[in-house]
Amino acid sequence: MKSLIxxxxxVHSKTFSLCAYNPKTRIYSNRIEIENNMKLxxxxxxxxxSEAEDLDTELIFGYxxxxxxxxxxxxxxxxxxECRVMAPSTIRIASTDRIRKTDRRDAxxxxxxxxxxxxxQVHIPDQEDREVQAYIRMREDVQDMVKQTKQRINAFLLKQxxxxxxxxxxxxxxxxxxxxxxxxxxxxxxxxxxxxxxxxELEIKVDRYDTRIxxxxxxxxxxxxxxxxxxxxxxxxxxxxxIVSEIGDFSRFxxxxxxxxxxxxxxxxxxxxxxxxKGTITKMGNSHVRKTLIEAAQSMVRGIxxxxxxxxxxxxxxxxxxxxxxxxxxxMRIQSKFKRMMNSGKNRNTAITACAREMxxxxxxxxxxxxxxxxxxxxxxxxxxxxxxxxx
Length: 392
Known about the structure:
With about 400 residues, the protein is α/β, with parallel strands linked by helices. It has three domains: about 5-115, Nucleotidyltransferase, domain 5, CATH 3.30.420.40; about 125-215, no CATH class; about 220-390, no CATH class. The chain has helices at about 40-50, 70-80, 95-100, 105-115, 125-160, 175-180, 185-215, 220-230, 235-245, 255-260, 285-300, 310-315, 320-345, 350-370, 370-375, and strands at about 5-10, 15-20, 25-35, 55-65, 80-85, 265-270, 280, 380, 390. The N and C termini lie far apart (about 60 Å).
């Protein structure tokens, strides 16, 4: 049987702190700090192997997911050693190490967590998925800049005593027309014009990125699943691509609840004895997908349950009747759930989050083929005002 030595790595952009732990002897050794240099990591590894009593010793490296991404894991694997990327929020460490936190103690804690399997391993996507992720995240960054620019325009006009009162919603065609016609002093007008030019440039960029993402989604690698996800209301192809590229292999989640938990959409809990207290969502796991699902839920809950737009019907074309039936069932269930929660006095954000969690479960079912047991059931008839199920 092979002897295992676990190496915890507390990594930073310039330095690595390393600590080796042998679970057989329960001894921590070779605790050093080195520069971010793979030659030094390789030297460290071979020194450990030369000092090992068992000639058949195997090294397992581990570090927290962070600024170095997955390239460090790739480099270590190229050396011939196993490397695991650990989800920071899942690593169980001693309370004393939380109070006294240093790089050396962090490396020791990571080595111990590795040996005791006291963590969750981060899924390492392949190179193509990483490239798509980077492109989509760039698009998200620019979209955030669009949002910030809109906020600055609103704040600027508020300071000048100018408020839009011709409708409830801003950034409609009417609101943009009002922005161009609002009366200001010459210099203030120049400031507003510059803001609007910046906003237009950013929005053009986002449109261009979305077009490119749609092109990527039509590649054989992604097309089938993106087509299926696009059957859900609120899921354009760029939104579907965000989820597909971030998650990769859905089969690693055994249940829909496990997938929702991974996204941090399940409620936290602080219960003891007969007391049961559930709080806000955990927000652990992949924040990009969680944010995407909450944004999609905002769109999904609008309108009358069961009514499909021409755009949605167009997106559903070409998919099997089973897939469309499953998606329609999910759309109606989530819309009715939102209406019930709102009618019962729930906070809107709470209702949207609950709908996003429900959406995650339907996505998992679509991705893993768990639609057979549901497609034969009739789509319910729902009261559009209350969300109450009338038939089915």
